[in-house]
Design the sequence.
């Protein structure tokens, strides 16, 4: 049996599909799994031993994009997939799933596109207190696959050996050998609803560096907020004595593969509900995760509960959770009410538990 899995974007959503790989291999031992994804998120699934191949679908605008998708659709049809599962449900993903010509196509009951699937699963529009992994698993349940287990089916991303070597070389260049304890702090997010203030991140970074002389804080950011890491590093260093300023490292940008290798080396991860947080969840690193408009029950690290993870969130905010389109109060209070002291104390507790 040949199975095509479709999830074009975003990074965190692609991570949330990875528990399905092992489950499908268990339920269909002879199956060959292929994954269709856009290039930006491809590193998440590339190299996964449960996948026979990763097929990239570059985004091209205009008429050229339509022609490219039709060509890709023909290539998918030549693969003769038996089953196609569309975890995405967007217009492009639906079209490519249909173009695959798989005789069994499983997708969500989406207005205007449901006809592209042979088997349709209801997807309520309301924000349910249910994890995204479980929501996506509804598509597997249609094939008879048993419910997921955090211990048997955690999120996964393979550590790339070459990326790990690059990361280690960069850390050594900043006097961060294995004898130090790394804290990885990711300070950006894909939209303003999930961006904790830079000043708050800087206060936590300085506090962690000051709390333990063996700690080195690596600050990272993504393309959505270029320069955010530099801003946080500068502000954190200003709060530290001269002897500790270099304990907040300036290591430059990290690719997704390098970020995965970096958190594998870390003693703690701190960051908001974003793609990098879910990449960190693929490791066993203790985590402090910040939640604003989203709820931990929907997007907390999907892995064994024996691995330490703490949520920093504002409770009692009436407009939370929200659809992240308009901030009704206008001040993003669901995030700004999370205090640096709360996050710092959580981080210090986890570092102490992690030896």
Sequence:
């Amino acid at each position: 049996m040949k199975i095509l899995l479709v999830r074009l974007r975003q990074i965190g959503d692609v991570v949330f599909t990875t528990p399905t790989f092992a489950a499908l291999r268990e339920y269909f031992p002879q199956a060959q799994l292929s994954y269709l994804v856009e290039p930006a998120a491809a590193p998440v699934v590339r190299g996964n031993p449960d996948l026979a191949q990763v097929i990239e679908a570059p985004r091209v605008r205009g008429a050229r994009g339509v022609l490219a998708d039709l060509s890709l659709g023909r290539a998918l049809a030549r693969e003769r997939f038996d089953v196609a599962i569309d975890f995405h449900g967007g217009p492009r993903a639906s079209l490519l799933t249909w173009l695959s010509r798989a005789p069994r196509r499983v997708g969500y009951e989406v207005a205007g596109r449901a006809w592209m699937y042979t088997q349709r699963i209801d997807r309520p529009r309301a924000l349910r207190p249910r994890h995204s992994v479980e929501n996506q698993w509804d598509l597997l349940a249609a094939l008879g696959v048993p419910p997921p287990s955090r211990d048997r089916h955690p999120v996964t991303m393979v550590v790339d050996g070459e990326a790990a070597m690059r990361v280690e070389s960069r850390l050594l260049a900043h006097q961060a050998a294995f004898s130090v304890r790394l804290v990885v702090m990711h300070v950006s997010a894909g939209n303003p609803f999930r961006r904790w203030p830079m000043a708050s991140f800087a206060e936590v970074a300085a506090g962690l560096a000051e709390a333990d002389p063996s700690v080195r804080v690596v600050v990272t950011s993504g393309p959505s907020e270029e320069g955010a890491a530099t801003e946080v590093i500068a502000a954190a260093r200003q709060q530290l004595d001269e002897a500790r300023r270099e304990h907040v490292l300036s290591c430059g940008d990290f690719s997704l593969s390098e970020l995965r290798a970096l958190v594998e080396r870390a003693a703690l991860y701190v960051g908001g509900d974003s793609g990098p947080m879910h990449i960190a969840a693929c490791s066993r690193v203790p985590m402090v995760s910040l939640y604003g408009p989203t709820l931990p029950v929907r997007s907390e690290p999907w892995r064994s509960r024996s691995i330490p993870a703490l949520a920093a969130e504002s409770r009692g905010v009436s407009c939370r959770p929200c659809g992240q389109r308009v901030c009704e109060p206008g001040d993003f209070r669901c995030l700004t009410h999370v205090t640096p002291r709360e996050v710092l104390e959580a981080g210090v507790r986890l570092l102490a538990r992690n030896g």
Summary: DSSP finds 14 helices and twelve strands in the chain. The longest strand covers residues 32-37. The chain has a mean pLDDT of 94. The radius of gyration is 21 Å.
